[in-house]
Design a protein that fits this description.
Number of helices: 3
CATH class: Mainly Beta
CATH architecture: Sandwich
Number of domains: 1
Order of helices and strands: HEEEEEEEHEEEEHEE
Helix content: under 10%
Distance between the termini: 36 Å
Largest sheet: 8 strands, antiparallel
Oligomer: single chain
Shape: globular
Strand content: 25-35%
Structural class: mainly beta
CATH superfamily: Exo-inulinase, domain 1
């Protein structure tokens, strides 16, 4: 007769194998938990809480989480004004200088008007300059778009409005080929960090965010 062995893991250890709890990254009233890129501890400039929305309202640089993350699932909603451009940049290593030198970016864009919308590699939802977006999912200017970003180990997924638009493996042969053919060919720190800050990009345009939350993954 076969003997079934119970798991040796304790309930606490088993619980650690699953994702952590969802944590809001924006309280709807302030920019607490964030700082402008490379200026932790200083008052945030250019980003404001307005009527429950997080808004890029002026110059200030990328808005960066105080905390660093390794493996995580991030959800948020965004909208841009006509011709607007922004992005979600993740696993940023500050030694790289600018955020996008080390951190991959999920593109935020008004595809219909901005010139980058003519190329799927730089359209909304793309892994900017490396992996193309799926066309036709972006709702356009002044419309809310939902994002789900999954980063676990070397695996990354971009979801836009309920559809997976990008999936890739950091450091894979395919990823290296794409990186070397892109603007990041000489950026040796790009995509190398195993943990880092998350940033909302200041690209000079007015952008709105809401319902920003994250949970850490094992």
């Amino acid at each position: 007769m076969a003997v079934l062995f119970a798991s040796a893991m304790t309930p606490a250890a088993q619980a650690q194998q699953g994702p952590g709890p969802w944590t809001p990254l924006f309280d709807g009233k302030s920019v607490q938990g964030w700082h402008n890129y490379d200026t932790p501890g200083k008052p945030v400039a250019g980003w404001t809480a307005e009527q429950g929305l997080l808004v890029r309202s002026g110059a200030g640089g990328d808005l960066t989480t105080d905390k660093q993350y390794a493996n995580f699932e991030l959800e948020l909603e965004w909208k841009v004004e006509k011709g607007g451009n922004s992005g979600v940049i993740y696993r940023i290593d500050h030694r790289g200088g600018k955020s996008y030198v080390s951190g991959p970016e999920m593109q935020i864009l008004d595809d219909a008007v901005h010139p980058d919308g003519k190329n799927l590699l730089t359209s909304a939802g793309a892994n900017y300059a490396l992996h193309p977006a799926v066309p036709g999912l972006n709702k356009g200017a002044n419309e809310w778009n939902s994002v789900r970003l999954v980063v676990k180990g070397t695996h990354v997924e971009h979801w836009l409005n309920g559809k997976q638009v990008v999936a890739y493996e950091l450091g894979s042969a395919d990823w290296e080929t794409r990186r070397k053919a892109s603007k990041f060919a000489n950026a040796e720190m790009y995509g190398r960090a195993t943990r880092g800050h998350i940033a909302l990009q200041d690209h000079g345009d007015r952008v709105y965010f809401r319902n920003i939350r994250i949970r850490e993954l094992p």
